[in-house]
Design brief:
Elements lengths: L5 E3 L3 H18 L15 H28 L4 H27 L8 H5 L3 H7 L10 H8 L2 H19 L3 H21 L4 H9 L2 H15 L3 H6 L2 H15 L10 H18 L10 H8 L1 H18 L8 H35 L6 E3 L4
Parallel strand pairs: 1-2
Helix pairs in contact: 1-2, 1-14, 1-15, 2-7, 2-10, 2-13, 3-7, 3-15, 3-16, 5-7, 5-9, 6-15, 8-10, 10-13, 12-13, 15-16
Length: about 375
């Protein structure tokens, strides 16, 4: 039974599942060398998958904050922070500690502090992505994806205050992404230092706010949302993501991720509120993969690395067959680890989180 104050938004776990698997497949592609074969082509799936995550996070967080504001006439920011802490921090720090111990405490170098203080995007921008995190590139790969979790936590630090205090939230939601794109354009035009460009690219607040804009439009039931819930618009959106999946999309790095965010909103609108949607992501498999998507995202680099040792005992000479077996077994292993983590570790903190929840979102990993 769904509680009275619960909000049901169908299809969101399916979107999470797609984004998480995009990251997983790309990471496997880029680490086939662990298995003694050349890496596959570098795909944009991982970085665009993260952008989908950002957009969805901005949408859901903003929508729940607006619903709380509507119901209680305020936003309990302390409870908001407690929900974020209980959802993100336990797995974030447990995985980080596992990586530290696997590499050997004596081998850890000072930039690991960027990860412990949840500002890894600063580390990636101003210290360097490879080297100086831990003792070698393999361990660097194991925590390199943490930049996105740092960006989300930094966004959460100020976002509830924006929603709570803003008298013209609509204007802010429109102007912020525009200003963010203009900032990136100006930095390019004036040949800003490479590290600054990297920092702005990693810190995708614009994509998170675009998600928030979508939530506001949906919450206020704007006509634009209704127009985007049509057969042909949805088909165009899915075709666009097929092009992205084929690694054929690139207009300019200045606005690529913002474009991804806008198309993600179209998919979100159609999934949650279009009874005649072309493709429904509301099924048991996608729903469950979405529920454990945080674990899929966090654990996948470590599992990819450890599974390479398993393949020392699997003698396959045909490269095509070996690749196929690698993808199948590694993906299954990642799903299994995320399943164990979700059911026997994360759920404990999710139960604690509900003590600080005003409105519950069904199919909500946050």
């Amino acid at each position: 039974m769904i509680a009275k104050d619960s909000i049901y938004l169908p299809g969101l776990n399916g979107i999470r599942a797609i984004a998480a698997m995009a990251v997983v497949i790309t990471h496997i592609n880029n680490r086939l060398e662990y298995y003694g074969i050349p890496n596959a082509a570098l795909l944009d799936l991982a970085t665009y998958g993260v952008t989908i995550f950002f957009t969805l996070s901005g949408f859901l967080i903003t929508f729940l904050l607006l619903k709380e504001l509507e119901k209680t006439n305020t936003i309990d920011v302390k409870k908001f922070y407690m929900r974020r802490i209980l959802r993100i921090w336990p797995l974030y720090y447990v995985y980080l500690i596992i990586v530290v111990f696997l590499n050997g405490i004596s081998n850890i170098q000072w930039p690991i502090l960027f990860y412990f203080f949840m500002i890894p995007n600063l580390k990636n921008s101003f210290v360097g992505i490879v080297n100086t995190i831990v003792g070698d590139k393999i361990m660097t790969f194991m925590v390199g994806h943490y930049w996105s979790l740092g960006v989300e936590e930094q966004f959460y630090a100020f976002w509830p205050w924006i929603v709570k205090k803003s008298k013209n939230l609509m204007y802010f939601l429109i102007l912020f992404p525009i200003a963010f794109v203009l900032l990136k354009l100006m930095l390019r035009l004036f040949h800003a230092h490479y590290n600054i460009l990297v920092f702005v690219n990693y810190t995708r607040f614009g994509c998170l706010v675009i998600g928030g804009l979508g939530a506001y439009l949906f919450f206020k039931n704007y006509n634009l949302v209704q127009r985007l819930k049509s057969k042909w618009v949805e088909i165009i959106a899915w075709l666009f993501f097929i092009i992205v999946g084929a690694n054929k999309f690139h207009i300019t790095s200045i606005i690529d991720h913002e474009i991804i965010s806008l198309f993600t909103l179209i998919i979100i609108f159609n999934q949650i509120d279009n009874p005649k949607k072309i493709i429904s992501l509301e099924n048991k498999l996608f729903d469950y993969l979405g529920k454990i998507s945080f674990g899929l995202y966090v654990y996948n680099p470590l599992v990819i690395y450890l599974m390479s040792y398993v393949f020392n005992y699997i003698m396959i000479t045909n490269i095509l067959i070996k690749k196929s077996v690698i993808y199948v077994l590694v993906i299954l292993a990642i799903i299994f680890v995320a399943h164990i983590s979700y059911n026997y570790f994360e759920k404990y903190f999710l139960k604690l989180k509900y003590k600080y929840t005003t409105l519950h979102s069904i199919a909500n990993k946050f």
